[in-house]
Amino acid sequence: SIWVNIAFAFVIALLGGKEETHYVVLMVIPVIAAAFRYGATGIAVVVAATTGLTFLEVWIYYRRHLPMGPTEYFEATNVVLVYGVVAPVVALLVGRLRREQGKLRHSLAELERARDRLVSEEKLAAVGRFASAIAHEVRNPVAMIVSSLELAKDASTDPARRDEWREVAGTEARRLEALTGDFLLYARQRKPEKRRTPVATTVGYVAGLAQARLSQAGLRLTVQCAEDLVAPFDPFQVHQALLNLMMNACDATPSGGSITMGARPVPGGGVVLFVENNGPAISEDVVPKLFEPFFTTKPRGSGLGLAISRAIARGHGGDLVLEVNEPGRVRLALNIPADPAVVLEG
User: Fold this and answer.
1) pLDDT of residue 129
2) Structural domains present in the chain
3) What are the C-alpha distances in Å from 146 to residues 11, 150, 299, 344?
């Protein structure tokens, strides 16, 4: 404490046993400490105590070692004046520092409140955009279902036409089911359950799922993936992300074209999964909005496929990027970084 330091400095000065001991200057330390901790009254008490002890040390020394010179108390007074100057100067500096800290704390609190308001407003705006997009996407198939069923109920309509309207209603109902599935998948993003996963198995599984779509569109698929490549990711989520990229590539590639799906290792244990097609380049005005939820250039797309894939990649600590974009070569890459918590060996 301050008083212990004062006592220590006084005792050291006494034990010095010299006419001009410098140990008494150690009392400056508790004076500075008092200027940091106390108000004006506390500082005055500490300065008074150190002043008294400084003169007392001189008196005790010359009581034992006579005679005392006429300038000795004058020299002690100079030391005491140092206490008197140091204390208020330090107190002023500390006061200014504390006022600045108070202003900074107040500004920080204001910034935090402003940030919270912005986050809350952004969440509400996001909910509004999401609800608006859902309403927009759901309205069209529902309207088609209602109108088709109304026409199919008309007994005067030709039976073949009535069957056509029922088929239209069924098709739109299935599309509506797919849309709601996409909405739920986007809204309920869960934390990935990462584990040591053979990348070739994941790539092969997605290639198998996409085979029917590839055959229907007349597309060729090439797979490029080392059999021994492993990476830390949630296989179910990455299946979904990679399948979305495959479906997107199928839609973007003209009949007779080719798609390449593969993976390459990243130093440290990560992996990059990619899907490349030889279709036309993505236009410059579309690129900035490519991964935005609900943005689509397809007449019947939900605009959530790439947004879901990017959310999955970011959930793994990585990202989904447009790696190559040129005529005849468009590549989307899913970056999955290494995770020290997942052991890859074995």
Assistant:
1) 65
2) 2-101 (no CATH), 130-187 (1.10.287), 195-336 (3.30.565.10)
3) 99, 6, 20, 54
